[in-house]
Amino acid sequence: MNRLKNLEPREKTLVLMMLALIVIVLLYFIVSSSYQQFFLSKDQLDKSKTDYEYVLNRYKQIENSINSKLSNDKVKLSESIKVYLSSKDIKIESLIILDDDLVIKLHTNKINESIEVVNDLSERYSLVLKNVAFQRKSDLISVEILAD
């Protein structure tokens, strides 16, 4: 402290300017390091997202391929549909093969959910829908799907 008091005003100004310059340089290095880490993390996140999307698209292609092959074998198709619908917590009333057509009767709680299920089934298994019938029974929606 005594040394600072003994300095001339010009020297005090220079010391303060040097301290300010050191603080500014330190702040610059801290901020630039943070930005570099941010952009590196952003690049890694973008790469991970691209990898995830590639794997997801490849999975969907394989799934569509398998499901389109299932449409030729109605028994395997019906088993696959049962597994799929049970994973969605949808009540299956019946799933039968009638004159080479697939008849699916199920129950859902909401009309939106039943429409979504019909769309999912037709897209997932490439089903040609001949007829879709909705019927409200008290608090349940009954859906009957006739697919080729």
Description:
The protein is of the alpha+beta class. It folds into two domains: 2-68; 72-147, Endonuclease I-creI, CATH 3.10.28. It contains four helices and four strands. The chain has a four-stranded antiparallel beta sheet with strand order 1-2-4-3, with helices on one face. The longest helix is centred in the first third of the chain and has 62 residues, at 9-70.
In the CATH scheme, the class of the largest domain would be: Alpha Beta
Reported CATH architecture of the largest domain: Roll
The first-to-last residue Cα distance is 94 Å
- How many domains? The number is 2
Structural class: alpha+beta
Q: What are the low-pLDDT stretches, counting only 5+ consecutive residues below 50?
A: none
Question: What would you call the shape?
Answer: rod-shaped
Mean residue pLDDT: 88
Q: Strand order within the widest sheet?
A: 1-2-4-3
- The succession of helices and strands, N to C, reads HHHEEHEE
CATH topology name of the largest domain, in short, is Endonuclease I-creI
Helix count equals: 4
Q: Roughly how much helix do the residues carry, as a percent range?
A: 55-70%
Spatial extent as radius of gyration? 34 Å
Biggest sheet record? 4 strands, antiparallel
Number of strands: 4
Strand % is 15-25%
